[in-house]
Specification:
The complex is a heterodimer of chains A (about 110) and B (about 220). Chain A has about 110 residues and is of the alpha+beta class. Chain A contains four helices and three strands, in the order αβααββα. The model of chain A has no long low-confidence stretch (mean pLDDT about 90). Chain A has helices spanning about 5-10, 20-30, 40-50, 75-105, and strands at about 15-20, 55-60, 65-70. The longest helix of chain B has about 40 residues, at about 75-110. The model of chain B has no long low-confidence stretch (mean pLDDT about 85). Classes of the chains: A alpha+beta (about 110), B mainly alpha (about 220).
């Protein structure tokens, strides 16, 4: 899973968001490191919708423009949880192996 | 909002719409206004032109959507695409058969239908010339059908019809008696086409070729 996709799913993990909301959430989650652009976001959303990982929660018209709120489907929740567990396991393994070296290096 | 700011926003919106025109029609019908709202929301203060990085990101997205459409291909369409690729391979095998059996066929025709000998040679030359076109056509139709182009589906059916007529023409000229190997090869190619066309006209495939657009 690409990092952008992972972060988009993470942004939706605690509730529905609209497009611009996802961009600000992703920036926040990544500590300002990942600034999603609209093209990247909508290409990913298109694919995630077709794959059934996200769905449309509701639509609103704000200032004459359609605003769609996306949310994780049960399948999306499962996929995100599995990916998070995988990344966590990898990160833990890396940190465990680095620890002796880090201890020496930092001291 | 000042008049200048409003004019800038309007100009920016026109610029974004021009770039968004690169996206597939189904995507634009579904999401153009939505993505436009996001673009305008993320634009910087007083911005009147589409930035290079933004334009690049949008065009990249459009190219990705066009080359690798996300729409899940129904099994029938996936099978049809594979059959069409197999059709291109079978066409190649059929041409090789024609080349390999050319002298045998000419001898058989000369022995039984001396008057048709010239016509048989002409036919063999025609097959050699037409084959690369036919192979290219198979590959092209496989690609276009995979993308869910409705015209490709109709063109596939029309090509099958034309091919069927050519086959019937050959059979009426007793091709089956003097060039049995060639006719068997052609029949295999034809059968692949028939099944592929049948698959892309199944109800499952209809929804892929003619998706119902979300109206706003």
């Amino acid at each position: 899973m690409q990092e952008a996709t992972f972060l988009i799913l993470t942004a939706l993990a605690d509730g529905a968001q609209h497009g611009y909301g996802i961009i600000t959430e992703v920036a926040q989650i990544s500590g300002g490191r990942v600034k999603l652009r609209a093209g990247t976001l909508y290409t990913a959303l298109d694919r995630l919708r077709v794959d059934g990982l996200i769905g449309v929660d509701r639509e609103e018209v704000v200032e004459g423009r359609l605003r769609r709120y996306y949310l994780l489907t049960p399948e999306g929740t499962k996929v995100l949880a599995a990916e998070a567990a995988r990344l966590h396991a990898n990160a833990t393994a890396a940190l465990t192996r680095l620890r002796p070296g880090l201890a020496g290096g930092v001291a | 909002m000042s008049r200048q700011a409003a004019a800038d926003t309007e100009r920016l919106e026109r610029g974004y719409r021009r770039v968004l025109a690169c996206y597939p029609r189904s995507f634009r019908a579904d999401s153009e206004d939505e993505i436009l709202a996001v673009l305008l929301a993320t634009a910087s203060e007083g911005q009147a032109r589409v930035g290079w990085a933004e334009a690049w990101d949008l065009i990249r997205g459009a190219v990705r959507m066009r080359l690798w459409p996300a729409a899940a291909r129904p099994r029938a369409v996936r099978a049809a695409v594979k059959l069409m690729l197999a059709g291109a391979a079978a066409e190649l095998a059929a041409v090789i058969t024609v080349v390999v059996t050319a002298s045998t066929v000419r001898a058989a025709v000369a022995a039984r239908y001396p008057t048709a000998a010239h016509a048989a040679t002409t036919h063999q030359v025609f097959v050699l010339v037409a084959a690369p076109v036919a192979i290219a056509m198979w590959l092209w139709l496989a690609w276009a059908n995979g993308r869910g182009e409705d015209w490709a589906r109709l063109l596939s059916a029309a090509s099958l019809g034309l091919f069927s007529l050519l086959m019937l023409g050959n059979l009426s000229e007793h091709a089956a008696t003097y060039a049995p190997a060639d006719m068997i090869a052609a029949a295999i190619v034809w059968a692949l086409g028939l099944v592929a066309v049948a698959l892309i006209f199944t109800p499952q495939a209809w929804r892929y070729y003619r998706p119902v657009l979300v109206k706003q």
